[in-house]
Amino acid sequence: MNADDDRPATLCLVTGATGYIGGRLVPELLDAGHRVRCLARSPGKLRDHPWAGRVETARGDVTDAASVADAMRGVDVAYYLVHALGSGEDFEATDREAARIFGEAARAAGVRRIVYLGGLTPSDVPESALSPHLRSRSEVGRILLDSGVPTTVLRAAVVLGSGSVSFEMLRYLTERLPVMVTPSWVHTRIQPVAVRDVLRVLVGSADMPADVNRAFDIGGPDVLTYREMMTRYARVADLPRRYVVSVPMLTPRLSSHWVGLVTPVPAGLARPLTESLRHEVVCHENDIERYVPAPPGSPIGFDEAVRLALRRIRQADVATRWSSASLPGAPSDPLPTDPDWAGGSLYTDHRELTVPASREALWRVIEGIGGDNGWYSFPLAWAVRGWLDRLAGGVGLRRGRRDAARLRVGDSLDFWRVEEIEPGRLLRLRAEMRLPGLAWLELRADTDDDGRTRYRQRALFHPQGLLGHAYWWSVSPFHSVVFGGMARNIARAAAREPARTADEHASVG
């Protein structure tokens, strides 16, 4: 209940809860005393979040008017935190239609406020001259402002926080390249903002007066060029001095491929970001302070934001990452469960071994797979496959893991995504690499009738067209090395796992 009256707590609808900002906003809203309903295409991806039991979930998509209308029932404040970034040439039309549907549904449901996190745009550049990404973010804000529902549009430039796509791009470029040949956009002035300040303002916007219907610029206290950001990052991270040489002829397309090769951010996602960096993005007002006053120590400066993000990364305490949300166009079909599946061919590679270790020890190895631990077989083959995927515009192997020891449904894991996890027993991964078909990898820790630990592994592939069949048969001669080696090495790694106490066993489940 609210502190000042007996009205029920504000009900907030959060779209994009499986994404970077949305996944962090939900617990902040709950801690502020609000009720939360999450709209998600796959609500199961929210299942393993620490706050999952405290929220309502609604299945749907912002492009589906019926599901949005259903999710809006009884909602007081609706957060719009989705966009079609990197989803193809028609992403502007998709964003436009989704914003229209959202605004109309909010108005029909009597929602008292919409809150939208958009992009900071330069005031002296016509909208037609903006990058497609910034132009679309601006248009979405305008559609929501015109929806008839009082709307708060928050416009931010680079968001700094552990796991944000902007921070990861800055981090990897700086850490991996002591000498950098960079595009000319490294001289563009930017006003970055810490993710903590973004969340603070998002939460505070829920209580704005009904007569407020406008956009607000939000940013930190520092205005820096991208070059200065890299230099200061290096200093905060205790790296040797970095040398930066800009090359004007690097186009946004070439820049995106350069970023894609050096950082975990795939070229398809890097391109709209680098295109946006052509424009100076600096706040022109700070009116948000009138409605959401900053507490002492806020907004957080660049150096402190970097320091906080690095601390989270080193402590393996990253709540969400840029890759938390599925990439547009990535395979999303669940594993077929019908053994006589009528969807066409389903190729399978099955491996099974008895493991001289406890089931708990085997599970720790299974759940720790990928990232820095690798894939337990033929590292060169995995590396080559990752590089080929990057060259084809895919995600490659460098997304790594959100947490070094624990996984949850929806986590990205190199070029896989966790589709299902039963702690202590099953890990099922769905491939997000570029393939002529759909692929899954299933790892199980079981116990047989004699009480022995059994490791069971299945790789499954549903080919699409003749090319898909040809792909499977062309790589099948290597399966004994890749998948057979993986099974043997996982079993060996489990046998080397140290024993745990009874209490630790119970926590593993």
Automatic annotation (TrEMBL):
Domain of life: Bacteria
Gene3D superfamilies, A to Z: NAD(P)-binding Rossmann-like Domain
Pfam families tied to this protein: DUF2867, NAD_binding_10
SUPFAM superfamilies per the UniProt record, alphabetical: Bet v1-like (SSF55961), NAD(P)-binding Rossmann-fold domains (SSF51735)
Domain NAD(P)-binding residues, every copy: 16-157
Protein name: SDR family oxidoreductase
Organism field: Streptomyces doudnae
